[in-house]
Amino acid sequence: MNKITIAIDGFSSTGKSTVAKQIAKELGYVYVDSGAMYRAVTLYAIKNGLISHDDFNVEALIYQLDKINLTFQFNESLGYAEVYLNGENVESKIRTLEVSGFVSQVAAVSEVRQKLVVIQKKLGEDKGVVMDGRDIGTVVFPNAALKIFMTASAEKRASRRYKELLERGDAITYEAVLENVTQRDRIDTTREDSPLVKAEDAIEIDNSELTLKEQFEKVLQLAKITIEGIE
Ligand code: CDP
After folding, report:
1. Hey, which bits of 18-142 come out as E strands?
2. I want to staple 132 with a disulfide (CB 3.0 to 4.6 A). Which of 16, 193, 203, 215 is the partner?
3. 19 inside domain
4. Per-residue pLDDT tens for 77-96?
5. Coil vs helix vs strand at 11
């Protein structure tokens, strides 16, 4: 069976990674979370005092990019690859609201994007990959056989993310999560380099009223049709 590339883009907290993981598992494909890479670079910037609420030393971050080594390691029990920053598993540390608060600023830096897009293209070289992010269908894999663009109302997205963070034990409020979601949408859609836009040939799915199962079935059906179409 021919393997294809599946690009899933969309606004923050639309459940892209949930469906991408499910589809990858079902098809025996590799799942790549491109957002995790931007989050890991952001964690590096926070840890090294390069970004805070009143300052972002962009030049220093660009200068230190060579020191940032990102790798993925497949976790058998989770069923997907976890991200490592300079050898440390940072999968959990990159999901905090603190990292979410800075990540869109870091992701707007062209030099950061260039570095990560090279890694992402390489990971998808052999096809059989499901990658989610903001610019996967437009910049990373403009020739992807299937492109999905996920949307949902900001309130729905914020309440889903709020639940996730509560389950992790993070002390946060719904209002703070909603504020973060809308702020990131604004920065991600208005930045100069690779803004979040729906690729012309992407299929839009609004999952505000879809269950996880319905969303999975919808994307799986699209994937199967696409795979059959190219055989
Ligand atoms: O919170 P959510 O899962 O929706 O976001 P994410 O996929 O983890 O991505 C975090 C942030 O990284 C986004 O808000 C973007 O600023 C940035 N990002 C990007 O610029 N390009 C990508 N391909 C993926 C993420």
Report:
1. 30-33, 51-52, 55-56, 70-75, 80-85, 88-89, 129-133
2. 16
3. yes
4. 888 899 999 999 999 999 99
5. coil
